[in-house]
Fold each of these.
Amino acid sequence: MKKMISGIKPTGQLHLGNYIGALQPFVQSQEEFDVNVFIANLHCITMPIDPEELQTNLRDALRFYLAVGLDPKKSTIFLQTDVHEIAQLGFIMSCLTPMGELNRMTQYKDKKDTGISLSSGFYTYPTLMTADILIHKAQYVPVGDDQKQHVELARNTAERFNNRFGDTFVVPEPVIAKVGSRIMSLSDPSKKMSKSDKDGEKGVVYLKDTLKVARKKIMSAVTDSIGIVQYDVENQPGIANLLTIYAALKKISIPEAVSEFKDVQYGGFKKAVADEVCALLEVLQEKHQSYDEAYIESVLQEGADKVRPTAQAVLKEVQEKLGMEILK
Ligand code: TYM
């Protein structure tokens, strides 16, 4: 069975973009692949955090992993820091990655000009992500469009390592959803829907939003004055985004979604999208509440225990190849 690895960094509450771009594809892959998903808590501290808020976000994220349908009997779910080898391989990866490559990372370029004081951890975080991926020797990495560049960095590092030190890593491929790999903000459809969106109150539907709030956000989504529901990203980015959300949730193609709303006005169309989103949130929120702490802890414990042997073996192999090990 081919292996998949992916993670989410819950620096804020999970949102509809995370669900459509990542969580839904993880769940759909469970029957066919050995799916490994983790909560990237080291990545969470690359920007300033509030410990209490982080703790809540981590626990909520884990509950949503389960609520969306990730089944611990089929998939492996773990917390990044429960597998210590990842951070150690992360340091090694940072030593094997030229700064020039990190300077080209879009997320770094976008942040560095904002004037925010950035930590060195934020700068090197793509090298930790390289370790997150390569340590599992997985073939596939399902991610949203914004993480593709980081998976490509991991591929480059794997290839470079294999060429220089002998075949070690699997060179992983990014898997990007056909529909919904880049859900846009509802209030500004030129921007990605994002946890760090300052306009989050209006642009982002959080999985924890009340149904009333979620519906209001969809009903107030920015559209245009053209008045026809059609998929035209250039001229009707708001409508195109709502069509994408609808198609992804209904698991239909964009043309199928368009044909459903051929003669429907924007108000009716938005209501249909809101109905779909609210139906999803209702189910997720009910399940979110249903797990007790002992179960959550057992899922994490078992997940880390399952992943650790491979992580240890791969780290040892890498260190041996680099000539770092003394004990056999
Ligand atoms: P993060 O936490 O920003 O996002 C988690 C996943 O959700 C996807 N995503 C979206 N997809 C569609 N539309 C959106 N608006 C949207 N926003 C987010 C992301 O592409 C991602 O798949 N560095 C990563 C976490 C990570 C990781 C890894 C992922 C750490 N190590 C190893 C894969 C493999 C991150 O910050 O994702």
Amino acid sequence: MKNTAALIDVEANNFVLHDPSQLLLSLDDLAAHRGDGIFETVLVTYRDDTTYIHNQALHFQRFIDSACMLELPSPDPKLWEEALRATAKQYKELNPDSHTVSIRYTLSRGHDSDTTTHTPHGWVFTAPVPRPEPTEITVITLNSGLSSTTAESAPWLLRGAKTLSYATNQAAKRYALSNGADDALFHTSDGYALEGPNSTLILRIGDQLITPDPKIGILHGTTQRCIFENASSQGLLTQYANVTLDDLGNAQGAWLVSSVRGCRPISTILSSTSGPATHIPVDHNLTEHMLQWVLSS
Ligand code: PLP
């Protein structure tokens, strides 16, 4: 596959398409060595000569909210949308047999050497993805070290913003893989479920879909929001709540959902501290509905 990219000049309010194999970030870019910037990753599908950027309005609103939390200039929806569309179009031209790709868009604070005033700039690039598969997964619960009140009392931790600082998320994934799980699920030090390193948790309890309230200090997932908007078609109610690890163990279904990986049902939960594995029923039918809702959004 040949990837495509665009560089965005925020000040000049324009962009240029660029060959990503030639792309060079300046070594003093604050995104690269401080993780000082924000990003979004969207799923793009091509069907019947149309390009779908799934849940783009929700993604872009979160991009704007993240910029606000990091005191970055508010991104112009028209400029970024045009850059995304142009990047997606060029990808399809170069890879006519491809039906799916992910596009990541990033806003960096700028360069370190700008000293007092930084000049933010952005970029957009594609990465191939397999079509999301509803594979059952084993998840290990990991203590985030934060309590359920930390997000509110420590706003400088930027909980809820989609920043580029993902080193601990990556470490959690590696820990999960080397401890017999497919993915991780963070929880607070006082026992509330948070989110996966790259995904949102959804539980089914009775006729309700429940997800941890973003106010606890997690990303407000676009996939979860799309699923909640469609849940009533299956007779399901929806709720944001504080979810305990006990609630998770007693659920009639649980999923980790994200734009790129889709909706993966959790079948087994391991604990990083001890105790036997907990098994959760897998609802293949509802999982299929979730995937369809995302692909038609
Ligand atoms: N939580 C975290 C930490 C994430 O990184 C992601 C996505 O990458 C999600 C949740 C799921 O968000 P979305 O459904 O918008 O992809």
